[in-house]
Design a protein that fits this description.
Helix content: over 70%
Number of strands: 0
Radius of gyration: 25 Å
Distance between the termini: 24 Å
Structural class: mainly alpha
Mean pLDDT: 85
Number of helices: 13
Strand content: under 5%
Largest sheet: none
Length: 331
C-alpha cells in the first residue's frame, strides 16, 4: 500500500468523521453520516495496520474513531462498563500469558541470590571485604530490623510502593532494550544474596526470613512479572513471527501496559504489608502467613482466573476500540 496516496484519498472522510465526533449536537442525517464514516474509517484503519503496521496516520485515525465511538456509547457508561472486563478478563489473561517467563525469571533470580549468599558465607575474605566486624554486627543486629520501623508505617508503605512501582514500570518500559531487565534482576539478586550471606554468616538467617518473607513473597513476584513483561516486549521485537515488528510491539505493548497496572496494584498491597505487618509485633508465623495468603491470592488470580479468561478467547492484545472496530468491519 502507498500510505501517502491512501491518506490523500481518504483524508477528507477522516476529517469529516473527526468534525462530527466533536460536534455537540447531531441531527438525524448527521448521526447516520457519523455511523457510515465510522464503519468505513474502521475498515481503513484495519487496512493501514495490516499493510503498514503502527503509523502516525493510523494513530490519528484511532483517536478519531475512539471519539466517534464515544458518541454512540457515552464516555461515562463506557468507562465503567469496561472495568469488570478489565479486571476479570484482560488483566488476568495478560498475566497468565507471562506465567512461564515469570517462572524462569524467578528461578534464575533465586539461583543467583543463593550462589551469592553461599559465596559470602563460605569465604571469610569476601565477608571482610563487605565491612568491618563491628559494622556488619551493627547491620545484622540493628540496621536490618530498624529499616522497617524508622519511619511511620503509612509513610514507609507509600515510599516502598512508589519505589517498587517505579522499578516495575521501568522494567516494562525499557524491556525493549534487552539489557535493562537483566541488569535490574542481577542487581536485585545480588542485593538479596548479599543480605542473606551476611545475616547467615552471623547466625541471623531466621531474622532475615522473618522480615523478608511477609512482604517479599508478593513484592518479588510482582517484580518478576514486570521483568517478564519487559522481556516479552524485547522478544516481540526480536522475533515478531508473522507480524511486522511494529505490529508486534504495538500489540504486546498494549497488553503489557495492562500488566503494569496490575503490578502497581499488587505492589501497593505488598507495600501495605511491608509498612504495617512486617515490623508489627505479630508472631512470625502470622506475619509470614499473611504474606503467603497475599501471594496465593495473586497466583490464583493470575493462573486460575487468567487460564479461564484465555480459554474464553481473551488475548489481552486488543484495545476495546480495536475489537469493536473489527467486529463492525466483519459485520
Amino acid at each position: 500500500m502507498d500510505l501517502d496516496a491512501y491518506t490523500a484519498a481518504r483524508s477528507a472522510d477522516w476529517e469529516e468523521l473527526s468534525r462530527l465526533a466533536k460536534k455537540r449536537r447531531l441531527d438525524g442525517a448527521e448521526a447516520d453520516r457519523l455511523i457510515d464514516l465510522y464503519q468505513s474509517s474502521a475498515a481503513d484503519l484495519s487496512a493501514i495496520q495490516t499493510s503498514a503496521g503502527s503509523t502516525a496516520v493510523g494513530d490519528r485515525l484511532s483517536l478519531a474513531l475512539s471519539s466517534a465511538r464515544l458518541r454512540f456509547t457515552g464516555a461515562g457508561a463506557n468507562l465503567f462498563a469496561q472495568l469488570p472486563r478489565f479486571f476479570v478478563l484482560q488483566l488476568p489473561a495478560a498475566l497468565y500469558r507471562l506465567r512461564w517467563i515469570v517462572l524462569a525469571v524467578a528461578a534464575v533470580t533465586i539461583v543467583v541470590a543463593t550462589l551469592y549468599a553461599l559465596w559470602i558465607t563460605g569465604n571469610p575474605e569476601v565477608l571482610r571485604n563487605l565491612g568491618s566486624d563491628a559494622n556488619l554486627r551493627r547491620y545484622v543486629e540493628h540496621e536490618f530490623i530498624d529499616y522497617y520501623s524508622n519511619n511511620p508505617a503509612a509513610s514507609f508503605a507509600g515510599q516502598v510502593w512508589t519505589n517498587n512501582a517505579w522499578i516495575a514500570a521501568q522494567c516494562i518500559a525499557f524491556g525493549i532494550t534487552g539489557l535493562y531487565v537483566p541488569y535490574v534482576l542481577l542487581q536485585n539478586a545480588i542485593g538479596v544474596g548479599t543480605a542473606a550471606g551476611v545475616m547467615f554468616a552471623y547466625g541471623r538467617g531466621d531474622v532475615m526470613f522473618s522480615y523478608i518473607l511477609p512482604h517479599g513473597l508478593l513484592e518479588l513476584t510482582s517484580v518478576f512479572v514486570a521483568a517478564a513483561a519487559g522481556l516479552r516486549i524485547f522478544w516481540a521485537w526480536i522475533a515478531p513471527g508473522a507480524r511486522t515488528r511494529g505490529q508486534a510491539l504495538a500489540e504486546d505493548g498494549r497488553a503489557l501496559f495492562t500488566v503494569a497496572v496490575g503490578c502497581a496494584i499488587s505492589l501497593f498491597v505488598s507495600g501495605l504489608i511491608e509498612g504495617f505487618v512486617t515490623p508489627s509485633p505479630l508472631p512470625v508465623w502470622a506475619k509470614i502467613g499473611i504474606g503467603a495468603l497475599a501471594l496465593a491470592a495473586f497466583l490464583a488470580y493470575m493462573l486460575v482466573l487468567g487460564r479461564r479468561a484465555v480459554r474464553s478467547g481473551e488475548t489481552g492484545d486488543l484495545t476495546e476500540f480495536e475489537a469493536g472496530a473489527r467486529r463492525i468491519v466483519a459485520g
